[in-house]
Amino acid sequence: MSRQTSLTQYLIEQQREHGHIPQELRLLIEVVARACKRIAIAVNKGALGGVLGTAGSENVQGEVQKKLDIIANEVLIEANEWGGHLAAMASEEMDSIYVVPNRYPQGEYLLLFDPLDGSSNIDVNVSIGTIFSVLRKVGHSRGVSEEDFLQPGKQQAAAGYCVYGPQSMLVLTVGDGVAMFTLDRETGSWVLTQDEVKIPDDTKEFAINMSNMRHWAPPVTRYIDECLAGSTGPRAKDFNMRWVASMVADVHRILTRGGVFLYPWDQREPDKPGKLRLMYEANPMAFLIEQAGGAAVNGSERIMDLHPTKLHERVAVALGSKNEVERIAAYHRETA
Ligand code: P6P
Question: Model-level pTM?
Answer without folding.
Answer: 0.96
